[in-house]
Amino acid sequence: MRNESTIGVLGVGAIAEAMVIGWCDGVEEPPTIVLSPRGRDRSASLAARFPTVEVAAHNQEVLDRAATVVVALRPQDVAATLGSLTFSPEHQLVSVAATVSVARLRELVGPADVLARAVPLPAVARRRGVTAVFPAHPDGRRLFEELGQVLAVDDEPSLDALSAATATIAAHLAYLAAISQWLTARGIPEEDASRYVVSTFAGVSEELERRPTGLLELADAHATPGGLNEQFLGTLRQAGFLDLVGRGLDEVAERASG
User: Is 121 part of a structural domain of the chain?
Assistant: First the structure.
């Protein structure tokens, strides 16, 4: 029997897992959550960890038991999976599947209502970070306000741009790895090099949380005239490294928009 307070989740990858942990871990009255069997190992692990989390036998059972449904499928799987399911007007969907527009979702899930698309990040497991949401439907926002801060945007292109910006995470980590590898090549043990780099940038992250705006000003504040930071930043700028960030994001955004 469908329950209005139950949350259903279609597709249980890393982001869905983070969301479930954020909703349940250390929460006095966590919601009842029904997970699809897709991502079986993660689903089983979450059900074993949290008493209010269950795994459905199949995707239709998720819809049969939950009125609010989070679509956390891979973009390439959205059409086939949603097209095979039966929705009712009682269903309210929130999608975290990248690149799938609200209009396309409505085509696939009618007569259900699509509350919002959202871009949650792994930090929602700790109820931290900012989740971009469009449109700013109060019920859709509420789901993510329980997982940290919400940034409601006015139009879908803005949401797509914020989603594209998340494509820089792997590059950022690879940049840190390159620094660590340089230290290792200079004779620092690999474990010590990694620990040092992580600690250095964790400190910078704390500073960013205190000052989330004015990033260029913050960079300049660290680039003391005549200092080593200024020299390294100047080398990157002269090589066009920072210009490549915008070019790469343009390519990601173009692909994401289809």
Answer: yes
